[in-house]
């Protein structure tokens, strides 16, 4: 599944009654005391969301796959996880661009000092 398709499937699932009515989702909210597990603010103060700690069981989550966060902490956690994935991603091999542009047999470029 491509990234765009995965994001679309994720969004559709999160908006679905299957997610809203999920036993695991409701169990996690109750276990957290209807409070954000990071900042400890409650549902009377903030909008609570249930974050997927893992996507291995996406669509058939257990309570261990989920954690309750307020919308602010959820946004920060999501951004931090994205940065970590980007940082840890393996870079493709670097290409000697001038050599590619001039041809494979061209001598390497020399920088002037």
UniProtKB/TrEMBL annotation:
Keyword terms of this UniProt record: Endonuclease, Hydrolase, Nuclease
Record-linked InterPro entries: HNH, HNH_nuc
Keyword Hydrolase among UniProt keywords: yes
The keyword Nuclease is assigned to this record: yes
Sequence ranges assigned to domain HNH in this UniProt record: 36-77
Molecular function terms, GO-annotated: endonuclease activity; nucleic acid binding; zinc ion binding
Protein name according to UniProt: HNH endonuclease
Organism: Lichenibacterium ramalinae
